[in-house]
Write a structure and sequence with these properties.
The strands form two sheets. This protein has a six-stranded parallel beta sheet, with helices on both faces. The protein starts with a helix and ends with a helix. Among the domains are: 252 residues, Rossmann fold (3-Layer(aba) Sandwich), CATH 3.40.50.10420; 59 residues, no CATH class. By secondary structure, the protein is of the alpha/beta class.
Length: 460
């Protein structure tokens, strides 16, 4: 078992029995569920919208090279610059070189899971560059020295009392601050940072191939400030975020907001068309886009699992997953958690490190049911399990057990051998810890259905 798998089991064991943690998580997910039901009412035919969106995302994934070339050509025409990064280390290094070249010592960041993926804040800190999160949830997590807990809601596991206590301990504020007071304090504290930062760093929700433009959605306005005030705006995103046309935003923006937060539309939706042009009064002097691979082309090479690249990062599958609801986001010890993370991480972080996540699933199919772009997530988890086994990552004990299980399942005479006493003994010996530690072991009946049927029919 890998160190990643061991840490996952230990964290999951601790969190699943932490009643206070589960209470907060279930409350917040419950609030989300209510909002999503309301948000879906804006669609006259939501299944048609999902089918259209799935078709467009699958079309892009199957023709990703062509769309990337089209986007690059149109983006460069608008004065933007592109850095192609093979992996996380290269992306972080290229960004720090841009900042060092321009003598920049402080940057402001809006919410971006890709920057978490490459460990950008830690990298810049080592380079002596201050990197400050400006999204409220991300800022809360940053001052608490924690990674984001959720793709969309970074501090989902914290109550308003937890946040007030954190700010009191870290920032010396009143211990009973309300959410509105916390927001006002953060807004005042960060405003001067926008004016003094040398660069702003954001993610991207969509890249439009036909126009060479970038779409960014947010609820607080911090991304607009991060790209509007500093001289340099750096966007970092995965190569899969392409959609064919800017006109497709009328489909993807409502789907993302509805399934992400239950809103009809995210509060701020911005389309970036390049750096500040002649005659324009605001915007960055330089716009740099970092397009990250980091295992995405390896995933693209998989006939089945490549469909996961169509994800629009709404977080719906996390909220629907009974495993995530039980253990929470940090137990995964991965950038992307929940069902989508369990599919992606083996290809982004190595199958040897993250193959166990594909087993952290009930295979109930709820993640597939709620996905706005109809990704068959529960099936992709099975494909990951298959690939891990084909790569020889199963233990010797697993291989031996499945060898005998398969032999019994394929031949009735072998299945009937041993009787119920031997079978129950084997269950106690081999499954007591794996299955029976938290659940009652099943008991094999004295006679099988086949035996009872034959006896009743007088068949020998």
């Amino acid at each position: 078992m890998s160190d990643f798998a061991t840490r996952f089991q230990q964290a999951a064991e601790a969190k699943v029995f932490d009643r206070e943690h589960r209470k907060k998580l279930q409350f917040n997910i419950g609030q989300y569920d209510k909002k999503v039901i309301q948000g879906k009412q804006q669609f006259s035919n939501i299944e048609l919208a999902r089918t259209r969106a799935a078709g467009l995302r699958n079309k892009v994934v199957e023709n990703l090279d062509k769309y990337l070339i089209e986007f690059e050509a149109n983006f460069l025409k608008r004065g933007g610059k592109i850095i192609w990064a093979t992996d996380a280390a290269e992306a972080a290094r290229e960004i720090s070189q841009v900042l060092s070249k321009n003598n920049i010592t402080s940057v402001i960041k809006s919410k971006s899971m890709v920057t978490e993926e490459i460990g950008l804040n830690e990298h810049l800190k080592k380079e002596g560059i201050e990197s400050l999160e400006t999204d409220l949830g991300e800022y809360i997590q940053q001052i608490d020295n924690e990674a984001p807990y959720h793709i969309v809601t970074p501090a989902m596991h914290k109550s308003k009392e937890d946040v007030a206590k954190l700010f009191h301990e870290k920032k010396g504020t009143a211990p009973d601050m309300t959410p509105a007071q916390v927001m006002a304090w953060v807004r005042e504290h960060l405003r001067e940072k926008y004016l003094s930062a040398g660069a702003g760093i954001t993610g991207a929700n969509f890249l439009m191939a036909d126009s060479g433009t970038i779409a960014i959605s947010e609820n607080e306005g911090n991304a607009v400030l991060s790209m509007g005030f500093p001289k340099i705006h750096i966007v970092i995103t995965g190569i899969e975020k392409i959609i064919p046309s800017q006109n497709d935003l009328d489909l993807f923006w409502p789907l993302l907001s509805t399934y992400g937060t239950g809103q009809q539309l995210t509060v701020y939706n911005t389309i970036i068309g390049g750096p500040r042009q002649n005659g324009e009064t605001d915007g960055p002097e330089e716009l740099i886009l970092v397009l990250l691979d980091n295992g995405r082309t390896s995933l693209l090479a998989q006939t089945e699992q490549r469909r996961a690249l169509g994800c629009i990062r709404c977080g719906a599958c996390l909220n629907a997953c009974p495993v995530y609801e039980g253990i929470g986001g940090h137990a995964y010890n991965a950038t992307y958690s929940g069902p989508i993370g369990s599919v992606l991480m083996p290809w982004m972080g190595g199958m040897e490190n993250y193959r166990h996540l594909s087993n952290a699933s009930s295979l109930c199919g709820k993640c597939t049911e709620v996905c706005p772009v109809k990704i068959d997530l529960h099936k992709l988890l099975l494909y990951n399990r298959r690939d891990a086994n084909q790569q020889g990552m199963a233990t010797k004990t697993e291989n031996v057990m499945w060898f005998f299980w398969k032999g019994a399942m394929l031949k009735r005479s072998k299945m009937e051998k041993g009787g119920s006493k031997l079978k129950n003994f084997m269950l106690r010996q081999f499954f007591r810890k794996q299955w029976g530690n938290r659940r009652e072991l099943p008991a094999v009946a004295p006679k099988s259905f086949n035996q009872i049927w034959r006896e009743r029919k007088g068949i020998r």
